[in-house]
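SDR family oxidoreductase
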Amino acid sequence: MSSLTGKVALVTGASRGIGRAIARRLARDGALVAVHYGVRGDVAQEVVEEITHTGGQAFALGSLLGVPGDVEALYEAFRAGMADRGEEPVLDILVNNAGVSGSGRISDASPEVFDRLFAVNVKAPLFLIQQGLTVMRDRGRIINISSAAAHRSFPESVTYAMTKGALETLTLAVAKEVAERGITANTVVPGFVETDMNARRRETPEAAAVLAAHSVFGRMGQPADIADVVAFLASEDSRWVTGQSIDATGGIGL
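Predicted structure tokens:
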């Protein structure tokens, strides 16, 4: 029996990059996965098809985060997707992966960009957790995806780094509050990963080499590197780990 058989997972921002890898890995481990997307429903459906083609279970749900009514719309779509499968709207694993970047240095900061980044990267996870707890079963898992930018000076994207710091503070508070139900809450901290978000930073071989050199392994991370850590935190094996920020940077800064 796979480790997550009978479990239901919701992964935000799961149509590409790290989220896509997480959705595929959790499905491989036996979970029914709700593949959330913001805009590209066609791409999210590709993820669902990849999962079902290999014997897994998944369905796509769309909800644009960072706008009024976003969390309500997401859980409405979740309930509808579960009902379509004849399932009760219960949840075991919530992965807050969706996020936006691009804030620039402090001289580039603007109220509009600040509000947008905090709305998607901080406000949405807070209320996704709040409402998710009403349907999450005991001994569930909350997993937030942060960034090495929250642990090291990253003036190139100051507001983005601030949002990830706030997300980790949220994890700490939630972990203590939900412990009585046997629910754990943890953060995974990626470094430079080969995703669309980092595409502009590795446009040339030289630029890619600079990013790879940050890791002691001399390469950039792959989405699967992060997904495997998430899979551990989603499993029963992680039952004694909570309130932690798990470094998954490949040894940046050692």
